[in-house]
């Protein structure tokens, strides 16, 4: 059974439900239609006894693999946020419900995280039971660069990285490779990029006793990922444990260390308001379950677009990066030192009573 849409291909091959994201020119950035196609396929397979496991990959510009998913479709978010399109609300509600389903799916979910894996791409892979990285993997949660926060459960999975790695990744948006992703608990195993096709095709040809056997067979193909590239773990844990975003930036700028200075320069380019919001998000999420984290993030994303009708940091950030491409966002406030604590806290007040929350059903 193969079902083809323009952007998502779903097919049961042997005993495995196979999903290919098929929007290569946009690096498989997720549209609302793609979120709905993914949700429909997973719901159909979740209780189908013939489907023992699910595998997901992205098509690159030169065919299968090469790009997993670059996140949500930020041009759509900009247009919808600028015009009051109600599909903006639908997108986030349905995307977060999809993220939750993947985490709680109950069958092996195997993500081939080759190439770009950012933002929403993390959302459809981090809940997987087997997260595969390659030498081409470039993983990041870069939302502070567009005046947003690491959503799709980012608070939940980043806060569970070792030490203060979660705060560092969330605030800077820095990208990491395969070995670091495994070391930080954001991936499970390494597969050379040129061996992915054989494993993918092998899933259709084997006969498996159960879902666990599918997962074990794929994991048996893993090889060593090599050395980690991030050598600043001690500094990350020191600086990103400080009380607030302004203190982190100040301490980094006062250092004589090259890594610290470069990190401070990165943070100075991010939305000052969202640096404060994101630090609060990650630290709150550390003591939250997934469903509560996703409800918190759904509250936050509503505020990102509608808290200040005169200026959404997110609409402005996307404008500067992807629409006008002037790379000169007019952040408000303009400096991390000028952000009022009351404004930060307002992002964490839910617009809905608990019974009416759009994600009230998540458990």
Walk me through the structure.
β2 and β3 form a beta hairpin. Helix content is 45%, strand content 12%. The chain has helices spanning 32-46, 74-83, 87-103, 120-123, 154-159, 165-172, 178-183, 196-205, 211-219, 233-239, 245-254, 258-269, 272-285, 290-306, 313-323, 341-346; strands spanning 2-4, 8-13, 16-21, 53-60, 63-64, 109-113, 116-118, 130-133, 138-140, 189-190. The chain has one domain (2-356): 2-enoyl-CoA Hydratase, Chain A, domain 1, CATH 3.90.226. It comes from Acidovorax ebreus (strain TPSY).
Task: Spell out the blueprint of helices and strands.
Elements: E1 2-4, E2 8-13, E3 16-21, H1 32-46, E4 53-60, E5 63-64, H2 74-83, H3 87-103, E6 109-113, E7 116-118, H4 120-123, E8 130-133, E9 138-140, H5 154-159, H6 165-172, H7 178-183, E10 189-190, H8 196-205, H9 211-219, H10 233-239, H11 245-254, H12 258-269, H13 272-285, H14 290-306, H15 313-323, H16 341-346
Parallel strand pairs: 3-4, 4-6, 6-8, 7-9, 8-10
Antiparallel strand pairs: 1-2, 2-3, 4-5
Helix pairs in contact: 1-3, 2-15, 3-14, 6-13, 11-12
How would you summarize this macromolecular structure in one to three sentences?
The chain has a single domain, classed as 2-enoyl-CoA Hydratase, Chain A, domain 1. The chain is built from 16 helices and 10 strands.
């Amino acid at each position: 059974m193969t079902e083809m849409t323009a952007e998502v291909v779903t097919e049961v091959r042997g005993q495995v439900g196979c999903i290919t994201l098929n929007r290569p020119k946009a690096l498989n950035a997720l549209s609302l239609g793609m979120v709905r196609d993914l949700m429909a396929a997973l719901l159909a397979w979740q209780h189908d006894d013939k489907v023992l496991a699910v595998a997901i990959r992205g098509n690159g510009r030169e065919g299968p693999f090469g790009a997993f998913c670059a996140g949500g479709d930020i041009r759509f978010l900009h247009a919808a946020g600028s015009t009051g399109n109600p599909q903006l609300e639908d997108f986030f509600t349905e995307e977060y419900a999809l993220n939750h389903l993947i985490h709680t799916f109950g069958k092996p979910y195997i993500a081939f995280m080759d190439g770009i894996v950012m933002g929403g791409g993390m959302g459809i892979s981090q809940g997987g039971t087997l997260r595969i990285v390659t030498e081409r993997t470039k993983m990041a949660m870069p939302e502070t660069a567009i005046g947003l926060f690491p959503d799709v459960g980012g608070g939940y999975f980043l806060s569970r990285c070792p030490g203060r790695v979660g705060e560092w990744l969330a605030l800077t948006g820095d990208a990491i490779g395969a070995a670091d992703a495994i070391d930080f608990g954001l991936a499970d195993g390494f597969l050379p990029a040129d061996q992915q096709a054989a494993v993918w095709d092998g899933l259709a040809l084997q006969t498996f006793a159960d879902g666990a056997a599918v997962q074990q067979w794929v994991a048996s193909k893993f090889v060593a990922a090599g050395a980690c590239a991030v050598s600043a773990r001690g500094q990350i844990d020191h600086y990103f444990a400080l009380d607030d975003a302004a203190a982190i930036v100040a301490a980094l700028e006062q250092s004589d260390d090259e890594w610290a200075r470069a990190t401070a320069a990165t943070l100075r380019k991010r939305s000052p308001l969202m640096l404060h919001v994101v630090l609060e998000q990650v630290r709150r999420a550390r003591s939250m379950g997934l469903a509560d984290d996703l409800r918190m993030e759904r509250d936050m994303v509503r505020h990102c677009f509608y808290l200040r009708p005169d200026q959404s940091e997110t609409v402005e950030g996307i404008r500067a990066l992807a629409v006008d491409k002037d790379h000169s966002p007019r952040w408000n406030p303009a400096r991390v030192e000028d952000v009022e604590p009351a404004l930060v806290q307002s992002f964490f007040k839910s617009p809905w009573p608990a019974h009416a929350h759009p994600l009230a059903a998540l458990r």
